[in-house]
Design a protein that fits this description.
By secondary structure, the protein is of the alpha+beta class. It is built from five helices and four strands, in the order H-H-H-E-E-H-E-E-H. The relative contact order is 0.08.
Length: 196
């Protein structure tokens, strides 16, 4: 096969090839710089993370040693004793706390029509019993006595005493009643422990 060049001066497109090669070399050089930069960044990051991981492992080992030392220093009998005390305290709290809703519901049941409760003040006595001081206003002394009888019949109130009974300016009687109150929950807990 015969190759012929009809141009007066041969033109081989060498400049275009050189330009393409130069462009390719620049792209390759730029990508190489980016890759080297990334490799260095990752290498530094890897070194930093390896150092941090090593420190964390040392700290974890130290904490494990401290925990085992603390576990060895704890007396199991002392833990059991404190746990029993905490259970007892929780039982006492459960026995001695009462629901205001339950108390007010009991008052609603025991309160005669002509008696109004003005104030209720709970307190604990030296034996940790709940003592209620109830201030009432009644139409007459019979209503006060009826309220005291109703409280005693309910079973939740004991030692119901009226300390003050005197007429007020409206022709009614102000009275202060004191009683020991045992909530239903406390009765149930006391009955359960009494049966065991």
């Amino acid at each position: 096969m015969l190759k012929t060049n009809f141009a007066t001066r041969p033109f081989y497109n060498e400049r275009a090839v050189h330009m393409w090669l130069l462009a390719a070399a620049l792209v390759i050089a730029a990508l190489t710089v980016v890759n080297v930069t990334r490799v260095l960044q990752y290498s530094r990051s890897d070194t930093r993370l390896a150092t941090q991981a090593s420190r964390d492992e040392e700290r974890a080992a130290d904490l494990r040693r401290q925990a085992s030392r603390l576990r060895a220093s704890v007396d199991p009998r002392q833990i059991e004793f404190k746990s029993a005390e905490a259970r007892l305290a929780n039982e006492l709290i459960d026995r001695r706390t009462f629901s205001w809703t339950e108390l007010l519901n009991r008052f609603e049941i025991t309160l005669p029509d002509d008696v109004r409760i003005v104030a209720v003040r709970p307190k604990l006595d030296k034996d940790k019993n709940i003592i209620l001081t109830i201030n009432i206003v009644a139409r007459d002394l019979d209503d006060v006595n009826q309220f005291i009888e109703n409280l005693e019949k309910s079973g939740a109130f004991a030692r119901v005493l009226s300390h003050e009974e005197h007429p007020n300016d409206q022709g009614q009687f102000d009275a202060s009643v004191e009683t020991r109150y045992t909530p239903t929950r406390a009765k149930a807990a006391g009955g359960a422990t009494g049966q065991q």
